[in-house]
Amino acid sequence: MDDNKEILNQNTENAEAAAEQAAENAAGAAEAAAESVENAAENAAETVAEGAENAANAVTEGVENAAQTASSLTDSLEGAASQIVGEAPKKKKRLLQTPIIIAFALVCAVAIGFLVFKLFFNNDVAGTWVYKYPQPTQEEMMGLESTIDEADRDYVDYYFDFQSTPAEMQSGSSIEGAKVAKVTIGTLTYEGYYLTSATEEGSTLTVTVPNVMSGAFDYELSGNIFTGRELKLISPYADASQGNDGQFIFKSATYSVPKLEREGEFKPDEKIYGKWIYDDGTNILTYDFKEDGSAHYTEKISSTSMYGEPMVSKISLDALYTCEDGSFTLYYYYNDLYITGKPNEMAAVYSLDGEKLLINGIEFVKEGASTADSANQS
Predict the structure, then answer these.
(1) With a threshold of 0.85, does the pTM exceed it?
(2) pLDDT bracket for residue 208 (50, 70, 90)
(3) What is the Cα–Cα distance from 255 to 260, expressed in whole angstroms?
């Protein structure tokens, strides 16, 4: 700001100096003109014609000089004025117009409201939950009262993943709105479906995951993302002898797949490398044997729920494998991971017949070779 004042003062001083200089030049020009007229009058007596001509020339020259001086003065003043005033600054436009700012503020408010709801008032079962399943003792499996100290009881972590994606159902199913439900124990995952509904008595969760859980439960949600969320399932058919009093407590969790550790040497069979498929049009089974000794197994089976509804159940298994003497063994984590820390094992016999791989008598074909259905019927 001070710099601008100094420039303005300097420009004003320049203008004033130019004006003074122009006035001096004009006075000098007028004085010269008067002197010329006086000389012309003195010489007129000697030569009237010559004096008159000289006088006229002198007057003309003086007038022209005065005009030039005045013009110079005008140019100087205009230049000084231009420097003093300068170019008027252009009005800057706002980067964001008012409607855009209002819309942005509304979006932010909605986002904040949704976040607060999700953090503190989320009443949706979607998410990952862990249930610690108490392992029954030998006495309990025989129908006897357990003598084990509860602190010594083994628990297996069941990770339930209730997803928001629609579940795959068989044609003819009357169930609407079913969503994917997965249960993972170690490196083995079962997949089925779940439904939620609200009644006057409360909220109901219906879960159908073959080999793990099937039934309808009243449920309650509590807690938040900071204190930890809890899902309580209540069933009148729970086994009170296991100490749950008809209630199953699920805690919100994040599942991290355990890394499989190989015990012993990897014995490969290069002939079975790749993905092998069995597909009879209803059920699809796949084995994928990798060169690094890992394997992936999947099942997709058309089945029926406990309510008589046609459904699709799925199984996926990550494992390590080894081959020896016409059989392979899959090593995977399941319940033993939580009890002994060691992998479970699953063995099968196999043989090759051209492009077919027979596993426990079931014909598989290599992916891309032909359809498993045609191989099964040949």
Answers:
(1) no
(2) very high
(3) 15
